[in-house]
């Protein structure tokens, strides 16, 4: 439930009166947070690796401890985004997935939704499926000072349809480092969705039920709001509220950028449409990091990346907080021949304390207002009197909130895309 705390607006400018409002988020603050609303499915048996490779869109065996992946239906739509953990030298895998309420008739989370979907594929495979949710909690540990000997290198491959696929190379120490601080029976992997290093998403761990991680015992203990704030600022979607089961496409859900889909992997359910989109499609929408700003103002740069984020309490006057599911519209500038609003898609999630969230955004319209080519850099400011147009929550000029939309820090730098394009032209 989204809280409706008082928010402030001014008539002319976005009045930012708190000194804390101008401070940048500290990505390097070491923190450990339990990830709520997760279920753990154990897949065990001599055919476990083969079984999962035929169902998931990312083979995690080449990643230290496992990693991010997903289950896609035959029409190429995402059913579950997951983490798959693998204990070395065993035939056991653990799948960390959302306890999905969408598969339930009474809004009670159906913690066995994934099990019910994949058990039909077992057939003669030598595998056993069993839930281990009562044995483990899911933790995210991030902001840990870098171990200089555990290094990973990332470069990118770009598809003609707008896909951006990270390629990773790990030094041997990175494989050893992920095992450090785990109790017997616990597993962990690098969470590469936000890139590598202290400013990313850190590690994803399965920790004994009721325990806190031994690794990161000197970190601050955070909560779900802390974890979700970091995700949102990094532009990392997660779970059925943001990656809508049976509707979301992998590329629109940024599963390419967050290292959750492999376009060169062997056959798996949903592969055909996913690979075809990579080579010949055109991704017009993406889940993007968003920030909410008063609609009637030209806001100061302290409200926008790399500054902030602002809290709802940093604004003046009282307006209701935007809610997930509300539409986002593009309002043309006053000089435009047509003043008809255009759909820029919708809000997917809103942080209860900070004026940030995630939204499905039409890239062309975000570029028109903010400049998507500058994602990850200081955005261009909204022009005087909305001369570039506005993205707003709702559908007309009476909207309370305008929206900044941009890439999260997980994305490649704009110059990397330019360099790749130049290399292709020289071939």
Top keywords for this entry?
single chain, 427 residues, alpha+beta, Gyrase A, domain 2, 2 domains, five-stranded mixed beta sheet, 7 helices, 18 strands, globular, disordered N terminus, YgfZ/GCV_T_CS, Aminomethyltransferase folate-binding domain-containing protein, mitochondrion, YgfZ/GcvT, TrmE/GcvT-like
Please describe what this structure looks like.
- This protein is α+β, with helices and mostly antiparallel strands.
- The protein folds into two domains: 19-26 and 284-406, no CATH class; 36-280, Gyrase A, domain 2 (2-Layer Sandwich), CATH 3.30.1360.
- Helix content is 14%, strand content 27%.
- A hairpin with a 5-residue loop joins strand 4 (78-86) and strand 5 (92-98).
- Belongs to the GcvT family. CAF17/IBA57 subfamily.
- It is found in: Mitochondrion.
CATH architectural arrangement of the largest domain? 2-Layer Sandwich
**How far is the first residue's CA from the last residue's CA?**
53 Å
Q: How many strand elements? A: 18
Residue windows where pLDDT falls under 50 for at least 5 positions: 1-21, 101-109, 374-378, 421-427
Integer tally of domains: 2
Shape: globular
Give a brief description.
The protein is of the alpha+beta class.
Layout of strands and helices, then pairs:
Elements: E1 31-35, E2 38-44, H1 48-53, E3 66-72, E4 78-86, E5 92-98, H2 113-118, E6 128-131, E7 136-142, E8 152-158, E9 164-170, H3 172-177, E10 187-190, E11 203-208, E12 220-222, H4 224-234, H5 271-280, E13 285-294, E14 327-331, E15 342-350, E16 356-362, H6 363-369, E17 390-393, E18 401-406, H7 414-426
Parallel strand pairs: 1-12
Antiparallel strand pairs: 1-7, 2-5, 2-6, 3-4, 4-5, 7-11, 8-9, 10-11, 13-16, 13-18, 14-15, 14-17, 15-16
């Amino acid at each position: 439930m989204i809280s409706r705390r008082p928010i402030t607006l001014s008539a002319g400018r976005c009045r930012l009166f708190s000194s804390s409002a101008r401070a940048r988020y500290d990505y390097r603050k070491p923190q450990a947070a339990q990830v709520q609303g997760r279920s753990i499915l154990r897949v065990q048996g001599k055919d476990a690796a083969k079984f999962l490779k035929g169902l998931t869109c990312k083979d995690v065996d080449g990643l230290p401890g496992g990693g991010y992946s997903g289950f896609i239906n035959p029409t190429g739509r995402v059913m579950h985004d997951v983490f798959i953990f693998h204990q070395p030298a065993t035939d056991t895998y653990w799948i960390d997935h959302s306890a999905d309420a969408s598969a339930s008739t009474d809004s009670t989370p159906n913690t066995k939704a994934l099990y019910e979907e994949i058990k039909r594929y077992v057939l003669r495979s030598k595998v056993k499926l069993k839930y281990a949710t009562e044995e483990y909690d899911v933790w995210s540990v991030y902001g840990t000072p870098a171990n200089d000997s555990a290094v990973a290198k990332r470069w990118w491959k770009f598809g003609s349809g707008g896909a951006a696929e990270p390629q990773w190379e790990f030094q041997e120490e990175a494989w050893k480092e992920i095992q450090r601080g785990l109790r017997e029976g616990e597993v962990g992997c690098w969470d590469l969705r936000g890139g590598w290093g202290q400013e990313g998403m850190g590690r994803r761990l399965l920790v004994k039920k009721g325990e806190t991680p031994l690794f990161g015992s000197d970190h601050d203990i955070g909560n779900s709001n802390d974890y979700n704030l970091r995700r949102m600022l990094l532009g990392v979607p997660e779970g059925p509220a943001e990656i809508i089961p049976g509707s979301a496409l992998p590329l629109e859900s940024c599963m390419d950028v967050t290292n959750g889909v492999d376009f060169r992997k062997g056959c798996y359910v949903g592969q055909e449409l996913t690979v075809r989109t990579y080579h010949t499609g055109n991704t017009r929408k993406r889940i993007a990091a968003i920030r909410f700003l008063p609609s009637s103002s030209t806001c100061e740069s302290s409200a926008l990346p790399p500054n902030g984020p602002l809290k709802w309490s940093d604004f003046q006057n009282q307006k209701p907080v935007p809610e997930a599911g509300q539409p986002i519209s593009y309002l043309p500038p006053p000089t435009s021949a047509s003043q008809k609003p255009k759909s820029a898609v919708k809000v997917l999630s809103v942080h209860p304390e900070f004026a940030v969230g995630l939204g499905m955004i039409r890239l062309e319209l975000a570029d028109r207002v903010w400049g998507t080519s500058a994602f990850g850099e200081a955005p261009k400011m909204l022009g005087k009197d909305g001369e570039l147009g506005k993205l707003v929550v709702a559908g007309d000029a009476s909207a309370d909130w305008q929206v900044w939309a941009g890439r999260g820090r997980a994305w490649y730098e704009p110059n990397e895309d330019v360099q790749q394009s130049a290399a292709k032209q020289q071939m």
